[in-house]
Amino acid sequence: MTETKTSENRPSEPRNGVIGRPIDRIDGPLKVTGDATYAYENALDGTAYGYILGAAVAKGRIAEIDTAEAERAPAVLLVMTHRNAPAQPDFGPAVTPTVPEVFTRARPALNSERVRYYDEPVALVVAETFEAARAAAGLIKVRYDEAPGVYDLPGHKADAYAPKRTNAGFETDSVVGDFESAFAAAPVKIDATYRTPFEHHNPMEPHATLAAWSGNELTIHTSAQTLANFRAGVASTLRIPPERVRIVSPFIGGGFGSKLIAHADTILAALAAQFLQRPVKIALTRQQMFANAGHRAEMIQQVRLGADTDGRLTGIAHDVWSATSSFEEYCEQTAVFARSLYAAPDRVTRHRLVPLDINRGEWMRSPGEAPGMLAFECAMDELAERLGLDPIELRIRNEPAQDPERGVPFSTRNLVACMEEGARRFGWVRREPTPGRTREGRKLIGYGMAAAIRPNYIGAATARVAIDRDGRVTARLDMTDIGTGTYTILTQIAAESLGVPISSVKVELGDSRFPRTAGSGGSWGAASAGSALHNACNALKQRILEAAQSSEASPLRGANATEASFADSEVRVGQQSAGLADLIRRIAPAGFEAEGSVAPGATTESYKAYSQHSYGAHFAEVAVDCDTGEIRMRRMLAVMGAGRILNAKTARSQIIGGMTWGIGAALMEQTVLDPRYGHFVNHDLAEYHVPINGDVPEMEVVFLEEHDDKANPLGAKGLGELGVCGAGAAVANAIYNATGVRVREFPITLDKVLPALPVIAI
Amino acid sequence: MQSFTYERAASAEQAAAAVAARPDAKFISGGTNLLDLMKLEIERPAHLVDISRLPLDRIEETAEGGLRVGAQVRNSDLAADPRVRSRYPMLTQALLAGASGQIRNKASTSGNLLQRTRCPYFYDRNMPCNKREQGSGCAALQGFNRMHAVLGASEACIAVHSSDMAVAMSGLDARIETISPGGETRTIPIGDFHRLPEATPHVETVLGHGEMIAAVTLPSPPPGRQVYRKVRDRASYAFALVSVAAIVETSGDRIRSARIAMGGVAAKPWRATEAERTLAGAAASDGAFTDAAEAALAGAVGHGGNDFKIPLAKRTMRHTLAAAAESA
């Protein structure tokens, strides 16, 4: 169930509009009937099919590659290797000069005989059919000069270095006061080291591209979260102007951060299509996605907390050692949230990297908070137990009055309200504080909770909106809907702003010919694109009103515009009103068009003056089988304070999706890197476990009503990833409460709790 | 996937003859495992003989009071058959614990028995694997072997057989009927059907090339209560870490007989005959169940990542035996 509860952050105006309503997805019927066309389903005359052959070793060079048999195979059009691939720029340094260049840099493929990671593309076969291409790829013989590589984070922790920055440009370290002295003096301490594993995004739709050239114009149908990144990345790699690249991605079958930049399918399809002068289609196989489409890196996290005997934190330290790639750095901002969540006089957070001979990690749902809070919020649970305090009470005692890192007030922060409301709804009072005491039959039952925090980002975005003589509204922007409900919430925003029914609004996304946005990622999509569209609608209304006042044909000529409103498909000015469509027919038969934009959040005065985050509290109940150690979820609850909710249904879906990620991170998701061969061993969905329906219990989501007027004109804040933040820690804390076993190595599989479970009499 | 030719068999005899005629031919039925392996070129048959439409899809009563299950009966249909549900509940439980609904709708009875291991090194052609490529070595032995065998393994191979159905069938003393290219038939007790790896892990059953499974016969249901317990990393769609199929016949407080098979521990469904012997005539007690579990795992050897399977199998067996011994 979903509910919206009123809290102190009431909206300043009554809202009777369509924003917030739990309307069904606009694109739902298209998707369930198969009429939504995904990248690989696009059909162009003369399309050829590519298949990528990956390296059989993780480090070394291609000594010999024999493609003769593959070239002779039926229906084969092209075998591309480093010997005949078009010239591309060198990959370049491991760290780009600036943060944005991470997204736009050239990502050459098949440009060298060197092998940098296991399953790196070494050849592309293009044929008349997918089957012919794949069969021919099996005929290529490659001999490698293998070089010794490093594939083991814990074994090379001593080789760690401090990067210049973390993802998104956050500082690598933060130091406030003197943590070591404070920690030494603290009467109550926790010093716990957690390990979080490699994880893979595994969106349902694999990475896929259909590339087609028309003269020197390149059109790429692909599955992209951020069109501008793909455009820039392809242009850099092919050394052509970005204006000659069009990216089309109207439907995306999930991305989770793995589709923020172009991967080998896109680059190779573009190169092969140019080479053959035919459209070329390439998809990564599920297995290839594990090496070639990003991952979350393995980490070791040490959390040290010092507190006085009343439970007030005196020192906080969060140290992270993460695996990275030897050729391209990625430092997840794992400890950054700890700079804003709780206050202590002496604090330190640090990020260190251990280079391995693997592909680069990429942004994976809730980068930073997902692994960071998994560790840190467990440490808070450990501290609460040591203090003999309820975990919620511990957090309430450490609720800061202002942002501890930046020293500015919060725009909104309802963490305590989320925890208290959650405790009431979940029946937290029934939690037995002593672990291992609650049994039902042969199941041990436990409750756990954790806090959630996620920064509110706004990316630069522009939207264009037009209205025609029939009152039909069309909004266009290069935003994407990766399954989150973007089509729907943008439709709601335009409908409410212009006072027209949902059915009169058409939102068109996913085409780089439309005005540029920041795309989908980092939970910034709705607020960024939504604010741009909101501003575009305001500009459109202004334009309509100006014409309505001045046009001779207007029934509203000369009316006072300061009292104007758009509602019920009418324009009202003072006591006068006119039907919107009728008005436009009279004053502008060609209709009106307007654009609106938002600037990146970090550049605004409001962002500088206020700490802007979304908050929440997660609650979980688990049952652990006494005989087998099997851990199964019983129920979960999330109470969220994330600004104005744009659509209660799609917002809930985002949160329950995030909570499901929390289950996965706590209980099952792990990719095993073989330290001998450097390959991800369990690289398919049979062996890489994500939660299936049977693992997902009853989930309740509650939104505290908020309107964050500091965040943006809509009052909305980033939401999607908040569902992940802390969710896994709530599960882990419930497992501890159930069993008394504190597992600090994720995922918490049954083998890790079994040895400590009592043998209960039959 | 390499190109192959395809024919649809007209009869069981013709199917067997068609495969026997070519060393590079294979039977295909539901294809839920073979096609995956062909895409990865782990299986590279040049010719496929489709037996899925042969009239081997019936479940019939036998004279001895059991059931004869045609080789082409789908897993879903076998699980749902009212006679199986009432007389062999353990088999229904095992089937429904396996794979997913979609896969069970396609997978055949014979194909389930013949499915190949899910060892991830077997699935990656760049890795050493004696099962896939004789003499290349075993990457799992010193590698990621959390899912692997603790019983009956060898230095050459520690892979497990992943079927749930076969474990229940093992506990039920099923017999496998085959037909050979010449039309002759034979009956193989399920315990003799799969081979342990020893030095030849690529040879997984006693079937000859072209010999086709026609049916699986279940003897009349043994007395006692049947329980199938599968332990896995998630609630569904996961292979067994360990599973236990148990039939315990009690008389008053004593156990008259027990049949126990284990899954997820060996290259074949593992019949725990030592455990069965310790239970026969024993008091139905925690101690007896614990002793049986100890006996069942007495020869177990872990390889690091799968060490936990030994205590897990013992605990699971103890509890499953207790559940089966509850007033039947």
From TrEMBL, chain A:
<dbReference type="InterPro" id="IPR036856">
    <property type="entry name" value="Ald_Oxase/Xan_DH_a/b_sf"/>
</dbReference>
<feature type="region of interest" description="Disordered">
    <location>
        <begin position="1"/>
        <end position="23"/>
    </location>
</feature>
<dbReference type="InterPro" id="IPR037165">
    <property type="entry name" value="AldOxase/xan_DH_Mopterin-bd_sf"/>
</dbReference>
<dbReference type="InterPro" id="IPR046867">
    <property type="entry name" value="AldOxase/xan_DH_MoCoBD2"/>
</dbReference>
<dbReference type="Pfam" id="PF20256">
    <property type="entry name" value="MoCoBD_2"/>
</dbReference>
<dbReference type="GO" id="GO:0016491">
    <property type="term" value="F:oxidoreductase activity"/>
</dbReference>
<dbReference type="InterPro" id="IPR008274">
    <property type="entry name" value="AldOxase/xan_DH_MoCoBD1"/>
</dbReference>
<dbReference type="InterPro" id="IPR016208">
    <property type="entry name" value="Ald_Oxase/xanthine_DH-like"/>
</dbReference>
<protein>
    <submittedName>
        <fullName>Xanthine dehydrogenase</fullName>
    </submittedName>
</protein>
<dbReference type="GO" id="GO:0005506">
    <property type="term" value="F:iron ion binding"/>
</dbReference>
<dbReference type="Pfam" id="PF02738">
    <property type="entry name" value="MoCoBD_1"/>
</dbReference>
<feature type="domain" description="Aldehyde oxidase/xanthine dehydrogenase a/b hammerhead">
    <location>
        <begin position="33"/>
        <end position="148"/>
    </location>
</feature>
<dbReference type="Pfam" id="PF01315">
    <property type="entry name" value="Ald_Xan_dh_C"/>
</dbReference>
<feature type="compositionally biased region" description="Basic and acidic residues">
    <location>
        <begin position="1"/>
        <end position="13"/>
    </location>
</feature>
<dbReference type="InterPro" id="IPR000674">
    <property type="entry name" value="Ald_Oxase/Xan_DH_a/b"/>
</dbReference>
From TrEMBL, chain B:
<dbReference type="InterPro" id="IPR036683">
    <property type="entry name" value="CO_DH_flav_C_dom_sf"/>
</dbReference>
<dbReference type="InterPro" id="IPR002346">
    <property type="entry name" value="Mopterin_DH_FAD-bd"/>
</dbReference>
<dbReference type="Pfam" id="PF03450">
    <property type="entry name" value="CO_deh_flav_C"/>
</dbReference>
<dbReference type="GO" id="GO:0016491">
    <property type="term" value="F:oxidoreductase activity"/>
</dbReference>
<dbReference type="InterPro" id="IPR016167">
    <property type="entry name" value="FAD-bd_PCMH_sub1"/>
</dbReference>
<dbReference type="InterPro" id="IPR051312">
    <property type="entry name" value="Diverse_Substr_Oxidored"/>
</dbReference>
<dbReference type="InterPro" id="IPR016166">
    <property type="entry name" value="FAD-bd_PCMH"/>
</dbReference>
<protein>
    <submittedName>
        <fullName>Xanthine dehydrogenase</fullName>
    </submittedName>
</protein>
<dbReference type="GO" id="GO:0071949">
    <property type="term" value="F:FAD binding"/>
</dbReference>
<dbReference type="InterPro" id="IPR036318">
    <property type="entry name" value="FAD-bd_PCMH-like_sf"/>
</dbReference>
<dbReference type="Pfam" id="PF00941">
    <property type="entry name" value="FAD_binding_5"/>
</dbReference>
<keyword id="KW-0285">Flavoprotein</keyword>
<dbReference type="InterPro" id="IPR005107">
    <property type="entry name" value="CO_DH_flav_C"/>
</dbReference>
<dbReference type="InterPro" id="IPR016169">
    <property type="entry name" value="FAD-bd_PCMH_sub2"/>
</dbReference>
<keyword id="KW-0274">FAD</keyword>
<feature type="domain" description="FAD-binding PCMH-type">
    <location>
        <begin position="1"/>
        <end position="223"/>
    </location>
</feature>
